[in-house]
Sequence to fold (849 residues):
Amino acid sequence: MIIGKPGLFLLSDTKRMSSLFANRENLCFAAMSPWIPRFCTIKVSSVAAVILLAAMGCSDSTDSANAPPKKTTQSEVSCHFVIEADVALPERIKVILYFKATSPFDLRELLDSVDMEELLSLHLVEAASVRVDVTTEEKPVDTPPIFGKYFVEQSRVVFTPAFPLLAGETYFVRFQPSAAQRLSLYKLEPITTRHSVPGGPIATRPTLASIFPSASVLPANHLKFYLNFSEPMQRGDIFQYFSLFDLTTSQTVPRPFRHTELWSNDNRRLTLWFHPGRQKTGVNLNVEIGPVLQSDHEYRLIVSGDWQSDRGKELGKDFAKKFRAGRKDAVQPNPKAWKLNSPTATTRDPLLCQLDETLDWALLHSGFIVERIDGDGIRVSGNIEVSENETKWSFTPDSAWTAGKYRLSVQNIIEDLAGNNLSEPFEVDVSKRSSSDANSTSQDDGSTHLEFTVLHALSRESD
Amino acid sequence: MKATCRIFAAVCALTLVAGLIVQEKPIDAATKKPGVKQYLANTQTGNLTFKGMGRMSFGPDGLLLIADASPASVVAIDTGDVGPAEKLADPIRNIEELVAKRLGAKAGGARIIDLAVNPKNGRIYLSAHRKQGNQFALLTVGSDGKLANFDLESAKYVRVPMPDGEKSKVGQITDVEFAKDRVVATGQCNEEFNSKIFSIPLPLTHGKPGKIFSAKTYHVAHGRWETKAPIRSFVPYEEDGKSYIVGAFACTPIAKFPIDDVQPDAKITGTSVVELGSGNMPLDMFIYEKDGVKWLVTNTDRFHHKRRPVGPSQWWGCRVRMDYLGAKDVNEKAVRRIFKKRKGPDGIEVIEALFGAKQVAKLSDSEMVVLRDNNGKLDLEVAALP
Fold:
């Protein structure tokens, strides 16, 4: 890569370039073909950096630059590539194939009904797809072209790849005039050139920033983990990167996970579930193969370092969470056992809620709402923190408390680690359900309310 | 153990608990628009992007439904693809690698998410994902096997968001289908153990959740343990003028429930109709008719294939005569496929053409399109239906 003026970067196949410089308006370079030096000038766009290069003969692997002028009855035509890329997004490029003719020339008419992918194409270079011939020129071998859009004007064809190129990779651009029968009159030669996309800034590795639940003892019927990553991770076929190892038996647990990818909108948080068919009592997999976890066994949940982020960078090392399986938990959380403090008015002291057991980390952030219930009854905005293995919930208001009556509204979808929520346990034994219950509808849209009062410090002292 | 398993697995039920009920409003005949336009309102043009392209299926007149995960929504595209027949002539070997390279990635750098076949002309559509950069693409396959990139930048579409307040965030739409007078979608939640069914009335209106009703699905094992259970795939069908859905959980029998009769706060119990055998995860479903008999076709991923294989691959498929779905009451003893035979009981048959089938879609009443595992690589081909 060669830097031109500020905001411009210039890429080239340096093997072919002998020099390159920029002035205020024009980018000039001397291009050295293997046989004949060429010199050309390209107008520099103020928006896009003109990268390129393999212009004219310098890119012609078949020695078209060295060929004698073509004698035709109509016109003499030559063509060359220019590759443009956005300064900020070098993965976004345009390939422009310019035609130059000595007499009027209607390119659109000549290319009518032509398969443009045959005429002008871009290919990813992979080691296995490149061969080296006697002229030491590399050529793509049977590599299918990349999707893109074509735009034909009177003197040029513009190709825009449908997807951004991959940073750090090299691509071939290929012009095959034989794809257009009407171009045969001009006896144009094929042109190929290479284009390398810069690798981007020094790549830091993604990391698995946190795993929840954070406790080291989980119920034997535990359901799910939250994996928070430092950057968006690659979706698709992800379950090959997870394993569960039983440290007590020294064996890998077979197929422990539910193969459903559940991501946050930003691709940074994955909800990883144990297979519910194995964790549910009486379901056939539970019966035939058994549950994923055995009480009192120790386990290691492993996330492979081979997994890549969206930008193609591996985690680099395995991440692991060690835990022990405790007893099954079939009991619903009990808000009546939770302990709530009463913050003091005019302060931003946190509202603290001590829970009776570890609850679902994500739901503790989305399922608790603080509301004022006297006066205007509005929702209080603030910041939620969860600590002590997700048994302590705290809320710091954005503004100081004002004296009055409030409530902590807890949605009944709040679950413990085994999926028991405030409405119902994860598994309901219908044989014990009363006839009146049998036709009832469990509601997941209800809430449980815990009221508290905010007092002035003086009032509190007088109490 | 086996006897116990049979007993355990025989009794399963799907319970639908209606949350918010909506009376579906039929399209007014007087204002009915021709073709695909009658199904769409506030149609947008251009700049269609996906953050989590997923399952897809076709409705009538080239209407393509695609699930998007972020945010959870159903996108309906007017493909305009109502042209002549485009049935794939020859198999495409190792198509996933071809897709990867055409998306600008190396082999293994992209995957096929789903396939759908346009019933209008038999053209195959693929949803695909390039892993690096999280790029999604909608591809079409011509009769000559040539892939083309469907231009989403100029597509005509509507996007219908799923209700997603502070509760029950839907992390993935597991299936979406056109069902005569509505679009039905199933979703799984990201945080709490829950799943949803969404019924979206026509016309689909861009940007407007509209009169969507959602419901929870339940599963009962051994007639005793009731738990929530996500539906992974389903197919709509009609019987005696009523609309039903045949659904499959992640690892349980095939069950059906009516979608016409949902009433406010009603509890609807579906019926388990067929047990394919434990450890099977039905993937795709469709219905076809031959010689006056209707069949349900499904392919499945066998959890413990090596332990008790059905065929040479963990992916296999079968057909079930539709009259098995006629059960009227909760089925305490759902019909079980005879696991050690290719056929049986009468009307339940393993389809050898579905060995290795990771995905399947109906092409006609005599053929299907199969995306088949071939020693770790995927082949796309047309196969005959029995």
Notes: Chain B has two helices and 30 strands. Chain B touches chain A through 71 residues (CB under 8 Å).
